[in-house]
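Section: Multi-chain targets

For targets with more than one molecule, the full set of components is provided together so that the structure can be written out for the assembly as a whole rather than chain by chain. Components appear in the order listed by the source. The example entry contains two components.
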Amino acid sequence: MAYNIPETYKDLTPAEQLDDKTLNKMVWRSLFLQASFNYERMQSGGWLYGILPGLKKIHKDKDDLAASMSHNLEFFNTHPFLVTFVMGIVLSMEQNKADIPTIRAVRVAAMGPLGGIGDALFWFTLVPITAGITSNMAINGNIAAPFIFLLIFNIAQFAVRIFLMKWSYKLGTNAIGILTENAKEFTRAASILGIFVVGALISVYGATKLDVQIPNGTTNEVRQVTTIVASEQDVSKYDEFLYKTNDDGALTDEFQDGAGVTVLDSGDYEVIFNQYQEKEVFVDIQEILDGILPQAIPLMITVMLYFLLTKRGWTPLKCIGLILVIGLIGSGFGVWPSIWP
Amino acid sequence: MDYSILQVLLIFIVTFIVAIDQFSFLESLYQPIVTGLVIGLILGDVQTGLVVGGTYQLMTIGNMPVGGAQPPNAVIGGIMATVLAITLDLEPTAAVATAIPFSILGQYAVTLIFSLMSPMMTVADNYAHEANTKGIERINYLAMGLLGLIFGIIVTLFFIGGAAFGAQVVAVIPEWLMSGLGAAGGMMRYVGFAILMKVMLSKDLWGFLLAGFGLATIIMASPALSGPALIILAFIGFAIAYWDFQIQTKFKTSAVSSGEGGEEDGI
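Its structure, encoded as tokens over all components, is:
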């Protein structure tokens, strides 16, 4: 069945303003934007579902409603949390019975820049910060953590959705101009904040440490020994520890460093001397790395993954595979000790 | 360990709801920090649920459905990590890593649904041409139901199977494998960070990444500030970003006015 979407609506008299109840109903429905998400039209099914209450009020003529529904089922993809902004504009144009090609162009123009802005606001800023703080609370066993996360996230989400719907519907088509005028600068600023936060996250949550100890010969460790003996004969047992030897190997009268004999008030002798013990020495690689740059390993791994993703076109899945291999091989050689804080 | 029919049923219902929630509705109920608590509640170990949920959440930070990309599925991953940690008594980090294969399975399930729904758009077109609003609504409800069902079935099957056979499997797993999985689990978050960098990082923004990293390292050196570190850093980052926005917009307007011969840019 061939169906051609007309250029203009039959009934060109502007419809009544949509009341608050209908607008709120569409804010609620905007939550289901991605309900029938698919690779062909992406969010178009959910988009149409979202604006249906408004369209039904605007287009009393059945053919007009069919035309409007048909062109609103074309490819649609924008940021789920900011969709009400597009809804408001498109509905104000539908209500004024603008030409269908114009509505379509505005819809496509409006949905584009929102993706980056929404990602920057929600996925790169709000979620990492709230989820980061609350996950640490949860790991420490704080039962309030999930609720705090849900509360902050959803208050922000609904505030944005409701505000954008009312605001953009009121401003109509002009709203696109306001946002797109500085869209490039806004996206850049949002990216700066986002990338700054990512850099911070690498350091704050990077918890990979090396457990490589390289043997580095042996050293003599000094241990001070203090004993109390009853008589002078007993003291002489310790002569070899107390006195220096001369070139022939015979004992001299000179005390060794730190050695000494004192007569206590009780008449006992306190003998103090140093004993030397051989001990193996290790070079702790992590300690050396910390001296150069703390958290260098998380930074290096992240940057490596970044280049694999961008320059080599790796998929995230492949990166996860690589991480698994590194983890398992490293564990086989005993490289990773305490991965988690 | 044995679990009652009620617990199996509750796990199915919870999975059904959060599977839908990952794309529609509140888009926050499905986060592991929330599902960890809920699954912990159902299985009677809230504490483990919280810890695993928080641990998994840290891993998925940044691993968000950005720009339509499909990261390994946090819904199945988060639920299965909690289930594994509680039923098999795994360490939280090991449980998170063990759940990765399940999360990849979830990713396949999502891809399957998104592909299946593509031809359904032709049906939707016909409803639109007939101005059949009920039909459009039905298609959306159907797609959501399908998504919830597939996820519910996958998790329920693994829950029953895992409780029965998982313990024996885990007993066979050698020590180095578990510690390796734990290590890898700790590194998974770097993939999330790298994806974020891929989407946002242009050549002229590298300095901001290093600035964030450097400042965070300084702040984290003070134990007292390790808790509020991210809020402090967000303040600093906001100052830089806002300043850049002002400068960039000023540049633009001054470029426009100087093109018209105006002399009021006052720099």
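Chain A touches chain B through 114 residues (CB under 8 Å).
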